């Protein structure tokens, strides 16, 4: 882009380092903030671009939303030739597209990532802001497992999307989150907008192939949401609706076996869309283009033919084995019963069928040879037994003369000996087990029932103690905090919201403070102010620890909603500061912790504020 390059300084403080991405007339660069000595990420657009003013305005609006999952907007500005948006740098973070293409991610991790994104977008929606252009490139995961999403308000301007009705915007973001889930489960992008580097999803009449039909290990509820949302006008109506439907999700990164995408079989040339019945089979899940990408068998035909040989390739399974009548040709080998009507083999399909048939034929020949040798061994034993010798009516005593039996071959002798040894080993094992169990389940009246009862009773306390020790050994762990926001129901709900995230950044030297008031009773304007700590759904807090640097009066509540309504008070303190501890009763649970300040005290400067440097919730 003109006016931007490595070493370029924007705004007198941001030194450009390296271009990271280029999309839709904008560029993303890594840069160094020379004023604060930190790394940042900068999105630049030409100053004469018609979107420049709207982009900066959107960035300013997005910067007013403080949420742990949303990438923070640090600064905006305009230079001679470019307009720019400065965001926090996410070092070594990887996009959802990169995670999917490099090994995949488990189904529960897809639930966690999309749930966190939906919760963040719902928080922004409640303030009238939306994303409108979610792609796998907008969602990243840090090395610590934190989920972040960028592009709030900004992505819509960059994509040229006009303002939508609030309900339509909420639905569009909900569909975008479902599409992220589809991409995480299948490795393919189901929407028409930018795919973030992922291939397009295989399409069927009415929509896209369901995740469970193209991948293994797909959670049923996520599969149902993808079906309803992407193949019809159903599903969640807002990001919050999606979050409620997939909750609960894990609070930490999930490690495990990823959802494995099935390899699609070849399809006839010229096929634009696959019938839905074909898409239901794991053997046929893509269009010819996607099949060509996923199957790399073009160079294997000649090699397979040389290694296997024409005589070694067995015929395909007969129609009765497949369950229905099926006419076969030399070019066609059945791949799967459900895909036999749609799939036709090209060069790659023929090689695959030949290789599979060769393996099946080899196994069948080995099994048949073993069975033949076993039957011949039994026949030889039968011939040598005088009791089973057949009668000969022409013999002098009604029996035929003994005919010398044909000696066993070397292979037959080894097989017969192996069978006998196997029987002996099995009999020996059964005998040892049987002897060891003699008398173990019999009661001949020689055992004193009183002694037995006393022994059992004596052992019970130790078992109970061990159980209680194991239960008591599990220590509560710090719960992840999704966000902390000021709570000012009788005011403007601002109260320095931009510094609220400092209350859970792990640094007790910094924190949040409210606006200054003239009296200890908030100048008579309100009954109090507070902070709301969002723990996410389905959390059971056990203890709340607060670090208060200045004297305040406060109460602490736990509840299901982000307000005092319906919340239970777990403690209160007056004129206190320092590290404060509030245990949560066993019967009290909720997603939100409300720290409510009921009185203020002047500090050394004579100012009256509510303070909180750090909050830690364990559970």
Automatic annotation (TrEMBL):
<feature type="transmembrane region" description="Helical">
    <location>
        <begin position="415"/>
        <end position="435"/>
    </location>
</feature>
<keyword id="KW-0472">Membrane</keyword>
<dbReference type="InterPro" id="IPR011009">
    <property type="entry name" value="Kinase-like_dom_sf"/>
</dbReference>
<feature type="compositionally biased region" description="Polar residues">
    <location>
        <begin position="493"/>
        <end position="505"/>
    </location>
</feature>
<feature type="region of interest" description="Disordered">
    <location>
        <begin position="377"/>
        <end position="405"/>
    </location>
</feature>
<feature type="region of interest" description="Disordered">
    <location>
        <begin position="486"/>
        <end position="505"/>
    </location>
</feature>
<keyword id="KW-1133">Transmembrane helix</keyword>
<keyword id="KW-0812">Transmembrane</keyword>
<feature type="region of interest" description="Disordered">
    <location>
        <begin position="443"/>
        <end position="477"/>
    </location>
</feature>
<feature type="compositionally biased region" description="Acidic residues">
    <location>
        <begin position="291"/>
        <end position="310"/>
    </location>
</feature>
<protein>
    <recommendedName>
        <fullName>Protein kinase domain-containing protein</fullName>
    </recommendedName>
</protein>
<feature type="compositionally biased region" description="Low complexity">
    <location>
        <begin position="257"/>
        <end position="290"/>
    </location>
</feature>
<feature type="compositionally biased region" description="Low complexity">
    <location>
        <begin position="447"/>
        <end position="477"/>
    </location>
</feature>
<feature type="region of interest" description="Disordered">
    <location>
        <begin position="256"/>
        <end position="354"/>
    </location>
</feature>
């Amino acid at each position: 882009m003109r006016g931007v390059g490595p070493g370029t300084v924007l705004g007198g403080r941001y030194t450009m380092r390296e271009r990271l991405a280029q999309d839709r007339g904008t560029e993303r660069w890594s840069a160094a903030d020379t004023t604060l000595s930190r790394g940042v990420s900068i999105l630049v657009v030409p100053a004469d671009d018609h979107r420049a003013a709207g982009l900066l305005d959107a960035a300013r609006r997005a910067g007013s939303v403080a949420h742990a999952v949303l990438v923070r907007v640090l600064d905006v500005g305009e230079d001679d030739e470019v307009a720019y948006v400065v965001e926090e740098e996410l070092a070594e973070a990887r996009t959802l597209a990169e995670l999917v293409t490099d090994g995949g991610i488990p189904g529960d991790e897809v639930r966690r990532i999309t749930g966190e994104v939906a919760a963040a977008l719902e928080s922004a929606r409640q303030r009238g802001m939306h994303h409108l252009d979610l792609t796998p490139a907008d969602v990243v995961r840090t090395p610590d497992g934190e989920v972040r999403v960028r592009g709030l308000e900004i992505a819509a301007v960059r994509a040229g999307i006009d303002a939508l009705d609030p309900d339509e915007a909420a639905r569009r973001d909900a569909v975008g989150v479902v599409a992220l889930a589809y991409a995480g489960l299948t490795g393919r992008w189901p929407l028409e907008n930018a795919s973030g580097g992922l291939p397009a999803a295989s399409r069927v009449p009415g929509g896209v192939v369901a995740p469970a039909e193209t991948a293994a290990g797909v959670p049923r509820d996520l599969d149902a949401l993808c079906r309803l949302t992407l193949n019809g006008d159903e599903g969640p109506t807002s990001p919050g609706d999606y979050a409620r439907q997939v909750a609960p999700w894990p609070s930490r990164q999930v490690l495990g076996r990823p959802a494995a995408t099935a390899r699609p079989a070849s399809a006839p040339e010229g096929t634009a869309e696959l019938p839905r019945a074909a898409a239901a089979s794991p053997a046929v899940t893509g269009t010819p283009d996607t099949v060509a990408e996923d199957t790399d068998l073009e160079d294997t035909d000649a090699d397979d033919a040389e290694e296997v040989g024409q005589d070694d390739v067995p015929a395909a399974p007969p129609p009765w084995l497949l369950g229905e009548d099926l006419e076969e040709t030399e070019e066609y080998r059945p791949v799967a019963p459900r895909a036999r009507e749609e799939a036709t083999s090209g060069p790659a399909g023929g090689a695959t069928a030949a290789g599979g048939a060769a393996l099946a034929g080899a196994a069948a020949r080995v099994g048949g040879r073993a069975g033949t040798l076993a039957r011949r061994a039994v026949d030889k034993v039968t011939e040598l037994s005088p009791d089973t010798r057949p009668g000969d009516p022409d013999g002098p005593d009604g029996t035929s003369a003994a005919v010398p039996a044909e000696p066993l071959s070397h292979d037959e002798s080894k097989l017969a000996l192996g069978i006998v040894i196997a029987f002996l080993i099995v009999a020996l094992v059964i005998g040892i087990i049987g002897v060891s169990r003699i008398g173990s389940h019999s009661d001949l009246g020689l055992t004193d029932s009183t002694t037995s009862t006393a022994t059992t009773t004596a052992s019970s306390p130790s078992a109970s103690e061990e159980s209680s020790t194991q239960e008591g050994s599990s220590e509560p762990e710090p719960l992840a905090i999704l966000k902390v926001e000021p709570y000012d129901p009788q005011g403007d709900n601002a109260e320095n919201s931009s510094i609220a995230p400092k209350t859970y950044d792990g640094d007790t030297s910094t924190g949040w403070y409210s606006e200054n008031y003239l009296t200890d009773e908030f100048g008579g304007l309100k009954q109090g102010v507070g902070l709301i700590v969002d723990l996410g759904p389905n959390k059971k807090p056990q203890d709340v620890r607060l670090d208060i640097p200045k004297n305040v009066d406060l109460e602490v509540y736990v509840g299901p909603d982000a307000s005092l309504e319906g919340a239970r008070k777990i403690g209160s303190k007056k004129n206190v500061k320092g590290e404060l501890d509030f245990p949560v009763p066993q019967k009290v649970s909720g997603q939100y912790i409300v720290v409510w300040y009921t009185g203020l005290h002047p500090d050394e400067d004579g100012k009256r504020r509510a303070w909180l440097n750090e909050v830690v919730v364990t559970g």
